[in-house]
Amino acid sequence: MNNIMINDFEGPLDLLLHLIKTSKMDIYDVNITYIIEEYLKYINAMQDLNIDIASEYLVMAAELIHLKSKMLINIEDEVEDESDEFTISSEEELKQKLIEYEKYKKSTDSFRKLEENRKEYLTRSPENISEYSKDIKYNMELSIEDLINAFLEYRKRLDREKPLETKITRKELSVKERINSIRNILKIKKKVVFTDLFESFTKEYVVVTFLSILNMSKNNEIMLSQKDNFSPIMIESRI
């Protein structure tokens, strides 16, 4: 007998399945008599080592002894006493329990792997940008929703235009730094198209630029305007 202990198994069916695999039998063509004997040997060995055995393992041992005695004297299921307290009445029933347990165990292992894989991904809740939209004034009834939609459309266009193979060098950029760079642009051009401020394809650059525009609008540094629904959004310095 190997050195595996009772608490290494999830229950008596798990132990039985282990014994079947150890004996290299096909679960659909298992020798029930041999497996019963191996199970009982295992339980007796554990008792000889003074190891506490959970009651469920002893209940299964009783079930198997009862089944083995039926098999030895060829008792048919039809003459079984209705008051019989045993739940396993035939070889076929035991096989079916083992087959169902094996299916359950395989599906559980699959879910466990999916759970482990999920732990490798980190999720982040969407940031609340409402603080950037307070007190923002727009011309031609331009709303924060219009600005966000324009931003999303621009992101889609970037995804379509970016090359198949890219090499990205990461550079940390703060909202404060980006605001200063936009101020410098507006000092020279006075008025620019909203999408022209997105000079890089990187996600970080695009997000920081968008937040900078919202922040500057909030502080009344810039004016956002749009002639009609399909015209580009213009950004103009108020200073």
Provide key terms for this protein.
239 residues, mainly alpha, 3 strands, rod-shaped
Q: Strands, helices and their partners?
A:
Blueprint: H1 12-22, H2 32-48, H3 55-73, H4 91-118, H5 130-133, H6 144-161, H7 175-189, E1 191-193, H8 203-218, E2 222-225, E3 234-237
Describe the structure in your own words:
It is built from eight helices and three strands. By secondary structure, the chain is mainly alpha-helical. The protein folds into two domains: 6-118, no CATH class; 130-237, Arc Repressor Mutant, subunit A (Orthogonal Bundle). A three-stranded antiparallel β-sheet has the order 1-3-2. A hairpin with an 8-residue loop joins strand 2 (222-225) and strand 3. The longest helix is centred in the middle third of the chain and has 28 residues, at 91-118. The N and C termini lie far apart (87 Å).
